[in-house]
Write a structure and sequence with these properties.
Keywords: Isomerase, Membrane, Transmembrane, Transmembrane helix, tRNA processing
Distance between the termini: 43 Å
Structural class: alpha+beta
Mean pLDDT: 77
GO molecular function: pseudouridine synthase activity; RNA binding
CATH topology of the largest domain: Alpha-Beta Plaits
Largest sheet: 10 strands, mixed
Number of domains: 3
GO biological process, one term: tRNA pseudouridine synthesis
CATH class of the largest domain: Alpha Beta
GO cellular component, one term: nucleus
Protein name: 13857_t:CDS:1
Strand content: 5-15%
Number of strands: 12
Number of helices: 15
Radius of gyration: 34 Å
Low-confidence stretches: 1-5, 24-32, 37-74, 122-131, 276-291, 523-540
């Protein structure tokens, strides 16, 4: 509509310039009431009010204007311009009006179509003698593909140029299985590929969902899932697929997401205050007054043997559950992401539940050889499973939520601090290791309700629970346990926090108060509002 209005305005402008003989655009301001020119229902008034310039032009028009032969009759209703209600009418009107232009829109469009058709019939040869016959177009249907994967060795899920990603391998497997034509195999956008939740580098997913267009005829093949899995690595699996409505979009129709975080219980061992040496890990100054960091020592094998004997007391476990329970509800999580102002409404997120499982015993591998032989009961490590169900998550939100509870429990900080982090005060909260994070499954509750009414299939991961649980134990949980045993990831993270606690995390105190020294007045990162669009919605990638 705005485009048509612009063209109409330009038309009247040129019309009046020719009618009264104005050659320069500036001169028309002295000749025509410009405000009337931009009114939608503008009609010419008697030309006796207008200045007629003695310039070369149409003599008949000029003489008619001087004699006032073109005028509106007194008492007669004003005539309104004809309005073109369809795009075709407007296009034909413009083609008739602007004949002085080279060609018209219809001719340009038809010539472009002819060029495209001629280019499609050839393979790029100049002579055009060699023709390539394209595959006949086959009907496609939108489907939701349920997948799971171990992210080790991959740089995230979403397709990224010059990077090894989960979606790239899945897309190639779909093409190899015949679900996608060769004509569409060069660009995933041609088949509307979209994921329900993204994951970062090395992050796993027991259940995730991809919406994509498959051939209609191939959907009914019973062994299609097996054909796709044959072309995938063992650490990537397709659980099944569901035919959906044509407008189905994996990300926008996803109601909520469930993440799981695995955490060894030794991270809750109370911190001894005298073990922190003020001269270690803090900034030092050399002769040139330049600041430099001192490297934090890594955990030793002897230290880890003692720590893995730790068993969390029931009282401490209750405090942990109370702490994570405080996250439930709608709160402002600006302190649990990067580059966000407390005034941004997008920082308000809804957490439906945050559950902590009972402790689970896992056998410890040798830190050097990875040997699984276990002879003593105290060589078992104790782990907790944290499951958070939320509408959506921002960048690093889950990892920062876990880190704050761990620091509070081991420093005996009051749990009242949690609610203070939802206020406008900006503090620095570190990230827990990405090692323990995995996407459990996306939830499509609203879509399933409509699917029942329309006779469509439901999107459910529970029907594949047996296969998913076996996959998690073999490819996800084992990878997390092994890397922690071999690299001491969580203890090294605790060491880095302890050597900076007094300087950066002054809010860790028994009263749960945030001192002025711990408030971030001028955060280094700029508040970027665009960081949340595809993720800051970490939908995914925490």
């Amino acid at each position: 509509m705005r485009r048509a209005y612009h063209v109409r305005t330009e038309f009247w402008w040129q019309y009046w310039k020719r009618l009264i003989g104005v050659q320069k655009s500036r001169e028309i301001y002295d000749t025509i009431p410009v405000k009337k020119l931009f009114q939608r229902d503008f009609l010419p008034e008697p030309l006796e009010h207008w200045k007629i310039m003695d310039v070369q032009g149409d003599s008949s028009i000029r003489s008619a204007a001087q004699n006032n032969t073109i005028s509106s009759e007194e008492g007669s209703p004003p005539l309104k311009r004809k309005r073109y209600t369809t795009a075709k009418d407007r296009r034909e009107h413009l083609n008739r009006t602007f004949k002085y232009r080279k060609g018209n829109r219809d001719e340009d469009r038809s010539s472009d179509r002819n060029k495209e058709e001629s280019s499609d019939k050839t393979n790029g040869d100049v002579t055009g003698n060699i023709a390539i016959e394209k595959e006949p177009r086959k009907p496609k249907r939108k489907v939701a593909v349920l997948v799971g994967f171990c992210g080790t060795g991959y740089q995230g899920m979403q397709i990224n140029r010059n990077a090894k990603t989960i979606e790239e391998d899945l897309f190639k497997a779909f093409v190899a299985a015949g679900a996608i034509s060769k004509d569409n195999s060069d660009d995933p956008r041609k088949v509307s590929l979209m994921r329900a939740a993204r994951t970062d580098k090395g992050v796993h997913a027991a259940g995730n969902l991809i919406s994509i267009l498959f051939f209609y005829m191939i959907i009914g093949i019973p062994n299609l899932v097996e054909k796709i899995n044959e072309n995938l690595a063992d650490q990537i699996r397709v659980w099944g697929f569901v035919q959906t409505i044509r407008s189905f979009h994996a990300k926008t129709l996803c109601d909520s997401r469930i993440y799981e975080y695995l955490l060894p219980t030794y991270v809750f061992i109370p911190r001894e205050r005298d073990q922190i040496v003020s001269s270690i890990g803090q900034l030092s100054t050399d002769q040139n007054d330049q600041t430099q960091f001192v490297e934090v020592p890594l955990a030793t094998a002897e230290e880890m043997i003692e720590k893995r004997k730790y068993r969390i007391p029931s009282r401490t476990l209750d405090l942990v559950r109370q702490g994570f329970k405080a996250y439930e509800g709608t709160h402002n999580y600006h302190n649990f992401t990067l580059g966000r102002s407390p005034m941004e409404k997008s920082c308000n997120r809804f957490i439906m539940s945050f559950e902590v499982s009972d402790p689970k015993m896992v056998h410890v591998r040798d830190s050097k050889t990875g040997d699984q032989n276990v002879t003593e009961d105290n060589e078992c490590n104790e782990w907790l499973s944290l499951k958070v169900h939320g509408q959506s998550f921002m960048l690093h939100q889950i990892r920062k939520m876990v880190a704050l509870i761990v620091m509070m429990i081991r420093t005996e900080t009051s749990l009242s601090l949690i609610h203070k982090t939802f206020g406008n005060t900006k503090i620095n909260i570190p990230k827990a290791p990405a090692l323990g994070l995995l996407l459990d499954q996306p939830v499509f509750k609203s879509y399933n309700k409509k699917a029942v009414d329309n006779g469509k299939e439901l999107i459910e991961f529970d029907i594949h629970k047996g296969k998913i649980d076996a996959f998690k134990e073999k490819f996800i949980y084992s990878k997390i346990y092994d890397e922690e045993f071999l690299e001491n990831t969580f203890q090294n993270w605790l060491n880095s926090i302890d050597y900076h606690t007094e300087r950066d995390y002054g809010y860790l105190n028994r009263e749960g108060e945030i001192p002025e020294c711990a408030i971030v007045v001028n955060p280094k990162e700029n508040f970027n509002k665009d960081a949340d669009d595809e993720n800051q919605e970490e939908n995914d990638s925490d």
